[in-house]
Amino acid sequence: MTAVDTRAERTYPAYSRPLWRRLLLSREASVIALLLIVWMYGYSNIPYFGDTLTLTYILVDMTTVLLIALPMTLVIVTGDIDLSVASVVGLSSAVLGLLVQHGVGMPVAALAALAVGVVCGLVNGFLVAHVGLPSLAVTIGTLALYRGIAVGLLGTTAVTDFPTSWTDQTARVIGSTGIPTFMIVFVLLAAGFVALLHFSPFGRGIYDIGLSTEAAEFSGVNVQRTKLILFVLTGTVSALAGIFYTLRFGSARGDNAEGLELQVIAAVLLGGVSIFGGRGKLPGVIAGVLLIGALSSALRLEGVTVNVINIIIGLLLVLSVLSTTLLAWVSDIAARRNRAKRPTQTPASVGSQ
Amino acid sequence: MRTLTRRSTLLGAVGLSVALAMTGCGKAETGSDSGDSGSDSKALNVVFIPKNLGNPYFDASDKGGKTAVEALGGTFSEVGPQEASPDAQVQYINTAAQQHASAIVISANDPKAVGSALTQAKSGGTKVVTFDSDTEAQYRDLFINQASPEGIAKAQVDGLAEQIGDSGEIAILSAAANATNQNAWIELMKTELKENHPDIKLVDTVYGNDDDQTSFDKTAALLQTHPDLKGIISPTTVGIAAAARYLSTSKSKGKVALTGLGTPNQMRKYVEDGTVTEFYLWNPTDLGTLAAYAAAALANGEITGKEGDQFTAGDLGSYTVGADQTVLLGDPTGFNKDNIDDFDF
């Protein structure tokens, strides 16, 4: 018994955990595990959750959040935030609708809507990176500005005459899998963003900025350029999400996707990204978005009311942020106890060898 | 030792949840089998999806729906988003479709955005009834229309005529000058006045833009420019409340009659203090009741929703499907001192 204990003590000191334990205890792993648990529970206990249709609905419902969460993760890892994303969705939707209403072809109108996203991102990025204003203040401003323009463009009317060949695409699924065809676009984009954040010097720069902007600057990271690129990415991807949203509902409105920015940020934080920057991984974020989607779908199927669903998801968010702090606190205490115990244990471990 | 305990606890927890999930799995296969059997799909199961939850108007209509569905021995549920946005409604339509609800009764936040979700629900055998706010016709089986423009115009003109003794100067306080439904009502009111109330003279039509302060100011201006004014019709809930607020503190209180379209909660105090004698709106509880009976009639195959189909809606009596698969609730309800306390919306 003592031998086992001491061996464990010596092999796994609290301050240098082996890879499998670090992976298992990581935030990403716990979110993925929670997602699997919710999915398995739903599959086995909730009527109709096991239908392939459920998968389709969850993925289609979460597509806009999934898309925008990709660049948003990068922005939050640098310690910034972009609150204007949902307004960009609305603005690109309004522009798309206005152009189609005036007889412009879908491909051109869609490209114009994307261009609107690029411009919105450039405005945000310029003000944050080059003028040096805090991103929170800038994007609260552009949140109102872009939404104002969007609602101004279409008024309270909605444009609904989109070609069905385009709107039908959003409801298409791959064979009998239930996976929406549009997920291919998402997977490609996600692969691009994973490569950018986790396997490129640009991505290491992003983490450096999040940990310390000054240190990143000194070590040669082009902070201004990085931030500008990230805001242009959120703008562009939000516009893409805006096009998807418009086609899915066949309705372009200036008030489309109001409040979506909070859903995106909530999912990113649930996925283990620190709001203070420097920490977080994309797989965790994607799992976080799917967790929210699966959980609310399961609860809806169980007949839980929208208020209770919001309470549960809100609690989950608070607990997830709290658990990070709590885990750090627990391992801190454990490390301190280990240090206190070490003098009496060292002879034993030496002896056992 | 601490690390080991923590690790085993963790492993134990993971193992336990996997085990629970697995056992759950086995149970579910049998559970879902019985769920899919015929008996479940035959039972009446109506899902009400209002524009948003916590809205007194829809609380009233859903109450009517619940009573009707339960009277028919079915299951009623009310689900919906917190904000009146179409994307949030879609999720609830999807859920109802997945659960193979017999019918969805919905007040649509957008005539088109909920369309594909409703089409999918219909293809799964769920009947779709819209009420209060319609979708494009191809997405639903029936629309329950709260009131006809003719009925709305006639009720207000007749009501005011009775209050002012069928003669004198009157004015209209409308919403925006380009509001389609308001202008249609005003035209019908003019026709009604010309044909049946020759001694009443419409001297002015002003627009409060559905803004409380503007409507308030326009009321004040109306009374100044037309000292002999005997009555005001305001066919908009914002306008009538603002006009009542102005009248209740002015010397014209009780001398200038006011009627129009309003909600009981807005107008209660003005009815109680004598500023307003009677105003109109459809009864949302009856609207919900009718929608529920129509949904049930569709679900059990009693009607298909084509023009001329007939069904009974409990105490409300018998209804016939009109053009464009629309059922008309009937004339607006008049709210006055005697009945206003029966309503809360």
UniProtKB/TrEMBL annotation, chain A:
It is a multi-pass membrane protein. It is found in: Cell membrane. Keywords: Cell inner membrane, Cell membrane, Membrane, Transmembrane, Transmembrane helix, Transport. It comes from the Bacteria. This is Autoinducer 2 import system permease protein LsrD. Its main location: membrane. It comes from Kineosporia corallincola. InterPro entries: ABC_transp_permease. The chain crosses the membrane at residues 24-43, 55-76, 83-102, 108-129, 136-159, 179-199, 228-247, 259-277, 284-301, 307-330. Pfam families: BPD_transp_2.
TrEMBL record, chain B:
It comes from Kineosporia corallincola. InterPro entries: Bact_Solute-Bind_Prot2, Peripla_BP_I, RhaS, SBP_2_dom. It is found in: Cell envelope. Residues 46-302 form the Periplasmic binding protein domain. This is Rhamnose ABC transporter substrate-binding protein. Its main location: other. It comes from the Bacteria. The keyword Signal applies. Residues 1-28 form the signal peptide. PANTHER family: ABC-TYPE SUGAR TRANSPORT SYSTEM PERIPLASMIC COMPONENT-LIKE PROTEIN, D-XYLOSE-BINDING PERIPLASMIC PROTEIN.
